[in-house]
Design goal:
The structure is a homodimer.
Chain A lengths: L11 H6 L13 E7 L5 E7 L1 H10 L3 E4 L4 E4 L8 E8 L6 E7 L17 E3 L9 E3 L15
Parallel strand pairs in A: 1-6
Antiparallel strand pairs in A: 1-2, 3-4, 5-6, 7-8
Chain lengths: 151, 151
């Protein structure tokens, strides 16, 4: 797929209050994307998209990110089978963030490569706790070792 | 408040599966933060924190971000009154993103400077629509003009 262009950024009022999607890709070509479970509202993960991955997400309805660590397009679930079917896509006031609501599919129904439904599986135990201890709030749904091939 | 230090980043297993909060601040000193309504799960906004704003968030329980546009600490609601009381704080698998669950307070109960409850008040009308039209999904809760002082 060739690079895809989205409408150019215009004026602040049009960006913030208009009805044309004109996403801001940063100097690295990326826009942050929050991924939420469409049914429960649980935040599953946070990743980045570039124009190509956003276009592919829109055309395939499968959440497709840009992997900064692997420096390549990343169709979520292509290895693990935990594909995310995109049901809704929002942008924020200044159109520099995306929010997608997805149906998390796959045998394990897990978004996180560590085997959890959500990447946000640890909560700060006490906001007053100066030792900053994290507390697990979720059960592991699969053992990631056999699922992902060694890189 | 002086700069606050958080535990240094150690090993990948400890970062991903351990119980010590060791957030990754980027080369710009910032970590992304997703803010969710603790009662409804609605994603309200997305912003950044630096170490000082994270420490202040933890000590005051008021969501405190780093404003990149104003280049200063930003106690959410300090001008508008729409303070966010932090109830829970999560981090993701690789501890380079924060998720806070807040009680959105204030007369208008709105997180967005444009007068909406959430910054994500526009949804792509159809994922198939090549014209990328956005559709309003929320009502404006306040008129922002008189609330914010001119900068």
């Amino acid at each position: 797929m060739s690079a895809t262009t989205f409408p150019a950024r215009t004026t602040t009022p049009e960006i913030e209050l208009g009805t044309t999607l004109q996403p801001k890709f940063g100097s690295d070509g990326l826009i942050p994307c929050i991924t939420q479970d469409v049914n429960t509202g649980q935040v599953l993960m946070f990743a980045f998209m570039n124009a190509e991955s956003l276009a592919k997400t829109l055309s395939t309805k499968k959440a497709t990110y840009w992997s900064r660590s692997r420096n390549k397009l990343w169709v979520k679930g292509e290895e693990s089978g935990n594909v995310q079917v995109v049901k809704e896509l929002f942008t924020d006031c200044d159109q520099d963030v995306l929010l997608i609501k997805v149906e998390q599919t796959g045998a394990a129904n897990a978004a996180c490569h560590n085997g959890y439904k959500s990447c946000f599986y640890r909560r700060l135990e006490s906001l007053d706790d100066a030792s900053f201890q994290l507390h697990y709030t979720a059960e592991r749904l699969f053992d990631p070792a056999p699922v992902y091939k060694k890189k």
